[in-house]
Design goal:
Blueprint (H helix, E strand, L loop, with lengths): L3 E2 L6 E2 L12 E5 L4 E9 L2 E4 L8 E4 L1 H6 L5 E3 L13 E3 L6 H23 L17 E5 L10 E3 L2 E5 L5 H10 L7 H20 L3 H9 L6 H11 L18 H24 L26 H21 L12 H18 L16
Parallel strand pairs: 8-9, 9-11
Antiparallel strand pairs: 1-2, 3-4, 4-5, 5-6, 6-7, 10-11
Helix pairs in contact: 2-4, 4-7, 5-9, 7-9
Pfam families: Peptidase_Mx (PF15887), Zn_ribbon_DZR_6 (PF10005)
Protein name: Zinc-ribbon domain-containing protein
InterPro entries: UCP012641, Zinc-ribbon_6_bact
């Protein structure tokens, strides 16, 4: 995540801010410019950009910004859409007559925007799903479970369904403990389920890609339902860390890909933040890794250097968390097999980013899916 500054007072602002805490100027994310903009409100639908490079261009806030306070993205004033690029991906929301659901929806949308920001940097920002038959678009359903209608978080044919209860901290922590998981976050759900979506995209656009995928992750044609049943009955192999990023990754090649994909996105976002904040680490012991940047980690040419930076940063983050009495920020072990899978994902994304002709949408230069 980049570092953003208010164009009115030059004070640092953050991705989810709706106003500058120093000067109270209105803020909003400008998708095309990939930045948090500062605005002067002319009326409810006309906000003038204070970015000197914008030449006083007019924008309007997303409908969910002004009516529900669950968004902070902006839309060019002459755009016919009333919803921003993020909110147009949301297909179903919880029943807002329940007050707690508004808070859950807000938390879900906040995590979704963070996920989408990184897809924009990676040049894989998805477009809305146009119909049930549209194989390239994406939609999100945020559903609250009912006594007779449980909700399973998952992906199917370009639709990602999230159990909105995951936005309840107590529910999520209890589930994490019950499932014996060492990591469970709302953002992590978005990143994991998106792995299934992008897997489908890759197999459609690059069918030859599957050969290399199977070399690292195994044959995805193995019966998925049977594999999951065996996993939940028998658990994972005691040496699972030699091959997988998590226990669940060993359930099936699809889950191995989704879990590893999610962790690649965790790495890229965290390293990108370190890069833009100017962080460096000079190790005090000769066997410990340093962290210094010679290029942006996103789309890095020297991915081995990026991995070295990640080791240094994750060690430091975990140590700092322990000093505060908190759980590790990154409670995972990267074996050689997992590192090879991460390298494969990086090569995959470089392949997509370097081939603009694979775009299936003309809606925006940032949309290649």
């Amino acid at each position: 995540m980049k570092v953003f500054y208010c164009h009115n007072c030059q004070h640092q602002v953050f991705f989810n801010n709706t106003y500058c805490e120093n000067c109270n100027a209105l803020l909003g994310y400008q998708v095309a410019k990939k930045t948090i903009g500062t605005f002067e409100q002319i009326n409810s639908l006309q906000w003038k950009s204070l970015n000197p490079k914008d030449n006083n261009h007019l924008y309007k806030p997303c409908y969910n910004y002004t009516h529900h306070q669950v968004c902070n993205w902006m839309i060019p004033f002459d755009d016919e859409n009333i919803y921003c690029e993020s909110c147009r991906l949301t297909h179903t929301i919880p029943d807002l007559s329940e007050p707690k659901n508004i808070l859950y929806w807000q938390r879900l949308e906040q995590a979704k925007r963070r996920f989408l920001y990184l897809t924009q940097q990676l040049n894989i920002f998805p477009r809305p799903k146009k119909s049930d038959e549209d194989r390239y678009g994406l939609r999100f359903n945020f559903l609250m479970p009912m006594p007779d209608q449980p909700v399973m978080t998952g992906h199917q044919s370009g639709t990602i369904t999230l159990n909105a209860s995951e936005a309840d901290v107590v529910h999520r922590e209890k589930t994490r403990l019950d499932m014996q998981e060492n990591y469970r976050t709302v953002l992590g759900h978005f990143r994991h389920e998106s792995g299934h979506y992008y897997f489908d995209i890759m197999t459609h656009l690059y069918p030859e890609w599957l050969d290399e995928f199977r070399f690292y992750f195994g044959d995805e044609r193995a019966d998925y339902a049977q594999s999951l049943e065996e996993y939940y009955q028998k658990g994972s192999d005691e040496h699972w860390q030699d091959l997988y990023i998590s226990r669940y990754a060993g359930a099936h090649p699809w889950e191995d890909w989704a879990e590893t994909w999610a962790h690649y996105l965790h790495m890229m976002d965290t390293l990108d933040t370190a890069y833009h904040t100017g962080m460096n680490i000079e190790a005090n012991h000769h066997i410990d890794p340093d962290m210094h940047f010679k290029e942006s980690p996103i789309g890095s040419v020297d991915f081995e250097h990026t991995l070295t930076n990640w080791f240094a940063l994750s060690y430091a983050l975990n140590g700092l968390n322990r000093s505060m009495g908190l759980q590790d920020a990154y409670p995972f072990t990267l074996s050689n097999a997992v590192l090879d899978k991460l390298r494969f994902i990086h090569r995959t994304l470089m392949k997509v980013a370097l081939k603009p002709e694979t775009r299936v949408s003309n809606e925006s230069d940032s949309n290649i899916m």
